[in-house]
Specification:
This protein is of the alpha/beta class and about 300 residues long. It has 14 helices and 13 strands.
Amino acid sequence: MRIASLVPSATEMLFALGLGEDVVGVTHECDFPAEAAERSPHLTRTVIPEGLSAAGIDRAVRERTERGEPLYELDAELLRELEPDLIVTQAVCAVCAVSVDDVRAVADELAGQPRVLSLDPSTLGEVLAGAQELAQAAGAPEAGERLRAEAAARIDRVTIAVAGTERPRVAALEWLDPVFVGGHWVPQMIELAGGEDLLGMPGERSRTTEPEEIAATAPQVAVAMPCGYDAERSAVEVREHAGVLARIGAERVVAVDASSYFSRPGPRLVDGVELLGHLLHPDRVEAPPPGRFSAVELGTALAG
C-alpha cells in the first residue's frame, strides 16, 4: 500500500506500526523517527515566517485564520504524482496541518480515488483508538492491537506506581504569550501521572487565560509545554517570559519537550505520561532519558 501522511503524529504512528516502508510522502514537519525525517518528498510547507516571537506567531496565526486563509500549503501536483492509496490527515487542530477540506478536494480529483482518513482525537483513549483505525485502514490490524496493548500496559505501570500518593496541583502551559492552558489529552495525562489539573478539561480545547486565574489554583508545578517546541526551546521561552511565570506563582517550573511528548497525538504521548509521572513523583517513577525536560529557576531568569 502507498500511504501519504499529512500530519507528523500519523507519520509516527505508521512507523510505530511497522508500516514505514509504505509511506511515500510526509510533511515538512515529520521529524520522527529518524527514517521519517529523512523521507522525501515533502508534501506541505508553512506560510508562517520563521523567527517570530511567541506573540508574533500567535498574531500571525490569528490574522490568517480570521481571514479564512490556510496556515499550510499542500503540493497537490506532487501528491498526484505519488498515487497514494491512503492519505492520512487530521482536523482536530486548524493550526497543525493542512485543511482536511483541502485534502479531500484534491483527493477527489486523483485518478485512483484514494481513501482519506482523518484522525481527530481529543483524548488519550481516542489517540490509541486512532492507531488501531489507521492500522486497519493500512491492512495491518494486528499491529494496531499490539501497539494499543503495549501503550496501555506502560500507562498502567505509571498509574500503579503513583497510586495512593498525594496529587500535586499542576498548571500545564501550552503557550506563554498569550498564556494557553493545555487541553485535549493533556489534563488526562496529568491525572494518569498522579497530578491534579484544575485548569484544563479532558477532551476540551486548550484555552487562553490570565496568570491570575492560574495563580488562584495555587499550582505546585508549572509545566511549560509550548506547542511544537523541544525542551531547550521551551526553557528559552520560560526564561523570556519569567515575569509571567512569576505571577503564576508555582513552586516549581519545568520546561518539557512538547513537540515530542505532548503536542502531537501520537504514540509518544505514552512517554509523556511517564515523563510527567517522574516530574510529579520522582521517587515512584523512573527518570526519562536526558533532554526531555529542564527545571528552570525563575529567580535566576528574572535577575538576568
